[in-house]
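Extended Data, panel c. Modelled sequence:
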Amino acid sequence: MNQNVLTQLQENYHHYAQTHSQPNRNIKLPSTLGIERAGDELRLQLSARSVTANMQTDAAAVEAWAFVLRLWLGKESVRRIVVDWEAPPKPHDGHYERFLYRVAQFQSLFPDWFEVADPRKLAMRRTLTEQSLILNVASGKTTSSPKTTSPEYKLESELIASEPFRRHFGLKAGLVDRQFPVGLFANTVSAKTHVFTGGKSAIDIVGLGEDGRFFIFELEAGGNISVGTLSELLLYTGLIREAAQNPPRIRFGSAKLGSRACVHPHHVQHCTGIAAVMLAENLHPLLEHPELLPALNSAAEARWNCVPGAKPVCFSKALIGDFRKTAKANA
């Protein structure tokens, strides 16, 4: 790792924290992320293990690291970021396919400065070569979560029942739900046709706004603070965006919906737009950059929202404590 990059990153963040009366939190970089700097170019190198890791881990969140590194080091200082990686032994590993999709989606947002060292590595991804991509749906009977004691489950349950939460985002009553499936398959939903990792991938919280927008909430509970929060939000936004566009590039499976589900595929298909929200009790310090949301939204407007048939995407972030304070104040 280039120690100078880490030193400059820490100095720039600490200056921001001091001038904005923020806690001076420790800044670290993943030890498995190779970083080399040459002039105004930054090169990121990932191992085969990193590209097949869970994207919730910082080691795998390459697009999030690329984004925050450029913001905190300065756009004039870093004019280009080139990413490269070691291909895994199994080229169609579900985690790896998801990684390739994420890289391609991020490159579509920021083609002016984010590059892949060897574009051929993206050319054979299944999300590009498969003719029919399918998202699974919440089918069958819904039972209680096996992790009902986990902080994430408790927080999800609290928020979907929270009136202050619903009012803050302008969500329709009865149309807020948790664990909206986004397992990706080829042609049909089955154990043998998954493109990503199985069929259990899900968005933490979703809802339909009074204005018709489809809300995606990527939730981080307690001390689970990760730069990968942004990677997850970008992934889910990309999938929902491609399912919502007209005509859709990704379709929903035809299985019968489960009895608990109150937010359905047709809410995605007929939405007026997509609101993608980072929601946490605490955010990773590098996600606090004041230009993070403007840069995301400017890119979405320029690269995604202008595509014929696209539903407009807008990014935002919020802290959970705000809703709890509102609830206590109104009690």
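The chain has two domains: 3-128, 133-330. This feature is highlighted in the accompanying rendering.
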